[in-house]
Amino acid sequence: MPELFHPYEQAFAANPYPTYARLREQNPIFYSAEFGLTFFTRYRDIANLLADKRLGRTLSHVMSPEEKGEKHRQENWQAMPAYSRFVRVNLLETEGPDHVRLRRLLAKAINARLIGGLRGRIELLVDELLDGIADHSEIDFIADLAVPLPVHVIAEMLGWPVEERHRLRPWSADIVRLYERDHSEEDVLRAEAATQEFAGMLGELADRRRSDPKDDLISAFALLESDGDTLSADELIASCMMLLNAGHEAVVNSAGNGLLALLRHPEQRQRLQRDPSMITTAIEEMLRYDSPLQFFHRFALADMEYGGFEFRKGDTLGLLYGSANRDPAAFEHADTFDIARDPNQHLAFGLGPHFCLGSPLARLELEILFSKLLQRFPDIQLLDEQPRYRTGLVFRGLRQLPVRL
Ligand code: HEM
């Protein structure tokens, strides 16, 4: 493995892009014994592989648990009772006909009407959050705005009771901690506890909504379930869990990374303030320039070859989306933050069969948040030019982002 790839070190977290640039040049495809997988760094390879039917996010449909166990003994966290039970039937971890069926059902429920209906609620939520900080001169953008917004939006969408909303963020943080490889035994126990509590409450809520449906996603899912064998009880719980996890951590991190990029580039920020209609391309550029999700894996579903490398059935391929999005072969002046960039075919939302189902909602939340923030606090400034990022290979996000309003 190239010596310079240490994604769990603070130096990498501070700025992974010079490392990615070196890798794209010198070792665009490399095997890491430490991770037990082959990493890909170039846009073209990653885009090709995401569309390649010989790969999938799970092996469950092509390998027995025993075969898989041999191959992936190190992933023993998958053996946890509740966590693994729900991960197994979660959209993001299914392939083939199960994935097609689940994706169709979820896409039917998370439709344009639902998202359009949330616009007014999101505007109100952002106004309330901005009212809450209006008489502060300094805030932590992450804790005060970026974290509460997506949690509230998901809670609204699911129809989660207002008095129970404070539980969602800690549950999600405990569960997604396991996505990173450097988690501890204690993290495993916390994730399991969070999964059990969340699943318990979801089950109760779904039961209540089945007899007394409301205009929310849990009701929509609960009615689907009772409609026949379309969405099982476990699938209902797994789907809501994944919406909380998928739909929230990445929005927090894209808001933080995006604001940092904007404030570090005063000329781009002025451009946006002069012409607020540039918000759409500005959000896409924030997602590309410092992507909140930098890495996903795929498994080889059969023996295969790609780019001169041989893979055996069950091998893992690591796709560095964060590197692809800075590849000069795909983006002109890839390291330049340009809020007018168009076209901008970034991979921040993935590509292919698992392309992010929540991208319209994520875009809407970010557009409303940034538009209102800049309108209301046009002089917003960084208080710390070098805020610290959390370490991680999958998630890329700031611990804090102190700003002066
Ligand atoms: C800026 C915020 C977001 C980013 C960057 C993001 C990114 C992604 C990415 C990269 C994937 C594909 C993973 C892969 O290729 O293996 C994905 C899948 C998914 N995302 Fe998002 N996401 C965001 C927000 C959301 C929101 C708000 C929701 C829902 C409310 C959501 C729901 C999903 C779902 C359901 C999938 C699984 C799709 C499937 O497996 O077919 N995401 N997301």
Concise description?
With 405 residues, the protein is of the alpha+beta class. The chain has one domain: Cytochrome p450 (Orthogonal Bundle). 52% of the residues lie in helices and 9% in strands.
Overview of this protein structure:
This protein is an alpha+beta fold and 405 residues long. It has one domain: Cytochrome P450 (Cytochrome p450). It has 18 helices and 10 strands. Helix 5 (81-88) crosses helix 13 (233-246) and helix 10 (168-176) crosses helix 11 (185-211). The radius of gyration is 21 Å and the shape is globular. The protein binds protoporphyrin IX containing FE. Residues 57, 91-92, 103, 242-243, 246-247, 250-251, 254, 292-293, 296, 348-350, 354, 356-358, 361-362 line the site of protoporphyrin IX containing FE (HEM). Protoporphyrin IX containing FE binds next to helix 13, helix 14 and helix 18.
Low-confidence stretches: 73-79
Total DSSP E strands? 10
> How many domains make up the coordinates?
1
H/I helix tally: 18
Order of helices and strands: HHEEHEHHHHEHHHHHHHHHEEEEHHEE
In this entry the ligands are: protoporphyrin IX containing FE
Radius of gyration: 21 Å
* Global shape: globular
Main sheet: strand order: 1-2-8-5-3
| CATH fourth-tier homologous superfamily | Cytochrome P450
CATH class: Mainly Alpha
Mean pLDDT: 90
What structural class do helix, strand and pairing data support?
A: alpha+beta
CATH architecture: Orthogonal Bundle
Relative helix content: 40-55%
The span between the termini is 45 Å
SS strand fraction? 5-15%
CATH topology call: Cytochrome p450
Largest sheet: 5 strands, mixed
